[in-house]
Write a structure and sequence with these properties.
The chain is α+β, with helices and mostly antiparallel strands and 348 residues long. It has eight helices and 19 strands. It has helices at residues 4-18, 28-40, 98-101, 154-159, 187-205, 271-283, 299-305, 330-344, and strands at 46-47, 53-56, 61-71, 76-82, 88-93, 105-109, 115-122, 143-147, 167-170, 175-176, 181-184, 212-219, 236-242, 245-246, 258-264, 267-268, 288-292, 311-319, 326-329. Strands 1, 2, 3, 12, 13, 14, 15, 16, 17 and 18 form a ten-stranded mixed beta sheet that branches. Strands 5-4-9-6-7-8 form a six-stranded antiparallel beta sheet. Strands 10-11-19 form a three-stranded antiparallel beta sheet. Helix 1 (4-18) packs across helix 5 and helix 5 crosses helix 8. The protein is globular and about 65 Å long. The chain starts with a helix and ends with a helix.
């Protein structure tokens, strides 16, 4: 199978998606983009009531369906206090650590008065003024958004139209290096959305009809724990989350591999699914790793907790520095894409 054109497409569509702000609770612009991409590829996506994207990719056997899920919601913040000096206290959306977000540029999305820019900083962030700068723990209670407008009071800020409950989006800073490394915030999990779009393109352009029905679900609340809790089509008996593969001390995976998760913090994945994924990776000479993730939960974990009777698995391109400034590699994309093709079709 020639993968280069699909990997090139995946990288391009991922860059475009990363440029669209979509923290949990503010994903409409991203899902509109994703729907248009599926439509360009010849599919008919629908929006779930929660706002996710559901796509039927076809297949012969509808009673043994496979769901492939990824999520387009990301980490972010919400204004929870307008301080007396006009700056903003945030409540996190998802699990972004405050220290990982320090000094990042942000966009403040008001409900009725447009968008403003700012920077997420430690309170009293001038080291030449703040003698406790080095000793202060970076937490949301000790950090603030400095708005790039001449505001000096809460009243000044409110006159701009900024209020509690407004969404704050962090700059992804996306870079793809000449050596193939992909660096950005929010590769978790927009890189996997790109991979699923590339897989859909592959099925369409190669005119492949899988033996069993295959669906995609692009969820929008994974980062807060209920993205995969609903919208499983009738006949689906298996679901695989395509999410970031963990890279770090004690794990085998690196950014150039596809990671197959055997167990995460919720427990083991289905033994037969994991075994079959490994067998497909071996048969196709893919660069893969099998790992146990110590602090991780996925959409398919949530699907099982919601009561669905399915087999489940989890794969993804290796991603380093998760929930920070993340890094993967186009080889990890290639191996993940190839594993999906090998596992789901006889034509790979």
């Amino acid at each position: 199978m020639k993968t280069k054109k699909y990997v090139d497409y995946i990288l391009e569509v991922t860059k475009e998606l990363l440029a669209i702000d979509s923290p949990t609770g503010y994903t409409e612009n991203a899902t509109k983009f994703i729907c248009k991409e599926y439509e360009k590829l010849g599919y008919k996506p629908t929006l779930t009531t929660k706002g996710g994207v559901l796509v039927d990719l076809g297949g012969k056997e509808k009673e043994n369906g496979l769901m492939l899920a990824a999520h387009t919601d990301t980490l972010g913040g919400m204004v929870c206090e307008i301080k007396g000096n006009g700056r903003l206290r945030l409540s996190p959306l998802g699990g972004m650590n405050a220290n990982n977000a320090e000094a990042e540029n942000v966009r403040i999305i008001t409900k009725f008065d447009g968008t403003y820019e700012g920077t997420f900083q430690l309170d009293n962030a001038s080291i030449h003024v703040n003698g406790e700068y080095n000793n202060t723990k970076r937490s949301y209670s000790d950090m603030e958004v400095v708005i790039d407008e001449p505001v000096e009071s809460a009243e000044d800020t409110r006159k701009l139209g900024i209020e509690n409950g407004d969404i704050v989006c962090f700059n992804p800073r996306t870079v793809i290096t000449k050596s193939g490394y992909i660096k950005s915030r929010f590769l978790d999990d927009k890189l996997s959305v790109g991979i699923l779009l590339g897989y859909a393109k592959y099925l369409h352009e190669e005119e492949i009809e899988p033996e069993r029905r295959i669906y995609h679900h692009i969820t929008v609340y994974e980062e807060v724990g209920h993205g995969g809790a609903a919208s499983l089509p009738d006949g689906v008996t298996e679901m695989i989350s395509v999410d970031m593969g963990c890279v770090g001390e004690g794990l085998q995976c690196n950014e150039r591999m596809v990671s197959i998760c055997a167990k995460d913090s919720m427990g083991p994945y289905n033994y037969q699914v994991v075994t079959d994924l490994v067998a497909a990776a071996k048969k196709n000479n893919l660069d893969y790793a099998v790992d146990v993730y110590p602090f991780y939960g996925s959409d398919v974990d949530c699907t099982l907790k919601a009561g669905y009777d399915i087999r489940h698995g989890l794969i993804g391109a290796g991603v380093y520095a998760s929930h920070g400034y993340e890094r993967s590699h186009k080889d990890g994309v290639k191996n993940t894409f190839a594993l999906l093709a090998a596992y789901t079709t006889k034509n790979a």
